[in-house]
Amino acid sequence: MPYSEKILNRSVDPATQKMLGRAEELDLETAWDRYEKMLPQCGFGELGLCCRICNMGPCRISPFEDTGPQKGICGATADIIVARNLIRMIAGGAAAHSDHGRDLAHTLLLTAQGKSGGYEIKDEIKLSALAREYRIETQGRSKEDIGLDLAESVYAEFGKQEGFVQFSRRAPKKRVELWKKAGIDPRGIDREIVEIMHRTHIGVDNDPVNLILQGLKTSIADGWGGSAIATEISDVLFGTPEPVRSMVNLGVLKHEHVNIIAHGHEPVLSEMIVAAAHDPKLVEQAKACGAAGINVVGMCCTGNEISMRHGIPIAGNFLQQELAVITGAVEAMIVDVQCIMPALGDLCECFHTKFISTSPKAKFPGAIHMEFNEEHAMEIAKEIVGTAVENYANRNKGKVFIPEDTTDCMVGFSAEAIVKALGGTLDPLLDAIKSGAIKGIAGVVGCNNVKIKHDEGHVELVKELIRNNVLVTTTGCNAIAVAKAGLMLPEASAQAGEGLRGVCQALGIPPVLHMGSCVDISRILTVCAAVANALGVDISDLPVAGAAPEWMSEKAVSIGSYVVSSGIFTVLGTVPQVLGSPLVTQILTKTANDVVGAAFAVETDPIKGAGLMIAHMDAKRKALGI
Ligand code: SF4
Ligand code: WCC
Ligand code: FE2
């Protein structure tokens, strides 16, 4: 079926195009329609020039000197307002990732105490490695005893008042010294987030540079702290990912099965849903209802988590969540936290789909709340799956429309798995970088955003990078976009430049390595730190670059900030709300180089964005003399 110009402009993904056509047929509204109704978006907001921090406001600064106020009622200038708004976004993002990490620490604590319902410590090698980092005794101790000490140690990172966050010491010495010198070495995770909220209260910190430095400090507490804890403790509890085959896109939903989508972020819930779906009684019950079985699939980062640990298929990325419901084939959309559209409530009411919220932190209009807790995890997971199974009888088969599209992919390249694929040491990778077979390493991450054609920014940028012999690592919704485009298969090395192709063929790996969910960007940092340490240089000396071609969330703002703070040049594909302050824009795109040895660039054209990254890598190679 040929699609309207409108649909073709919304997404490059064929399954998404089909579902947008279906949504039109059924007269159902999606995020794209709501975006169109929102236009024109507020110009003050777009520039970051609106302040509602106190009740004398809202205040807005005119971008043109002669046409309106240049100061808020308290006297705050555009620079102050933009800087405050920006770092409040960092606080939101860092809080989200770090709370995710905290939940994992909590689950490990309960598991070590024997109080959790169904979890166990799966990766003892990782447990011991982390214990060593914290100088926890491992000799002759049970995994539960070690786990208890580790849980208490990582838990303590959140409320720490002085000192430093342990995992940040994985960074090269030079990097840590630089953070200390700039005053941005975080003392504790929660402390830095709280300090942002304090400093941005009316009448506290009114120096844009000082504000931004606190933003960077907090973001480091996220990337090297909260996110790293989320990643590492997930590995301890659920296993460190290893390469596994999986499938992506809406075609993973099945006509004859009970379809359950696990959407959100934390593996604590989704791991149990996956396990519960194998329960023989529930499978039997599904069959008694006329279904062929139970089909659990993931969405957004939950999708990444269960896919890389179990090969569970991923239904789609952020902008596909509504479309999944519109297939009419979903018995339950189970959610925990983050990136879940409240629009799902009304939409699910147009179908038989049960929208099930599970976290005490995240309730939604139109959702049934089945609260999850770690103590009774398995029991509750079975109850949730049971609800989905019962709902199969309510599916209206005449209303089902599942696009056939699926793509195979290979996922699960943890840092450990990469080293393993390299034969046990980083040397083959270092040699390939030195010889120029691999020009550099890119981390391409982040969301979807209705402001940019869905998946196009992701796919085009990544294709251009691999064509130019850049090895790409990816997480989050970028990973899902790129997997849908078929780039996460060893065969995709045919699309890579000659050097990268040779390396991929020799190792049997794809040119784009799936490293996990958004918190797993900490894995990318770990790899960069290991490469820098092996070469005896700082991360900022390496031919590496980051990109977030379609970013939208506050988490992405925190991510971009810690990636730059770690010394990695980063290209943003959607324009951040900071252009109202030439000073803040200048700090982010130029001055940051003098402080942390890296900066941001904004480039909405993905090919040009890739070009900036490649030019950066060439310059770094030259400086290294390779
Ligand atoms: Fe206006 Fe200042 Fe209050 Fe912001 S803090 S709303 S700029 S008076
Ligand atoms: Ni991470 Fe962005 Fe996806 Fe949400 S799941 S939409 S923050 S990239
Ligand atoms: Fe995510």
UniProtKB/TrEMBL annotation:
Keywords of the record: 4Fe-4S, Iron, Iron-sulfur, Metal-binding, Nickel, Oxidoreductase
E.C. code: 1.2.7.4
Binding sites annotated in the UniProt record for [4Fe-4S] cluster 1: C42, C50
GO process terms (BP): generation of precursor metabolites and energy; response to hydrogen peroxide
An annotated Gene Ontology molecular function: 4 iron, 4 sulfur cluster binding
Required cofactor(s): [4Fe-4S] cluster
Top-level EC class: oxidoreductase
Binding annotation for [Ni-4Fe-4S] cluster: H265, C301, C339, C447, C477, C518
Pfam families, sorted: Prismane
Catalysis: reaction(s): CO + 2 oxidized [2Fe-2S]-[ferredoxin] + H2O = 2 reduced [2Fe-2S]-[ferredoxin] + CO2 + 2 H(+)
Binding site for [4Fe-4S] cluster 2: C51, C54, C59, C74
Subunit structure, as described in the record: Homodimer.
Homology family: Belongs to the Ni-containing carbon monoxide dehydrogenase family.
Protein name per UniProt: Carbon monoxide dehydrogenase
Protein's organism: Desulfotignum phosphitoxidans DSM 13687
Source species taxonomy: Bacteria, Pseudomonadati, Thermodesulfobacteriota, Desulfobacteria, Desulfobacterales
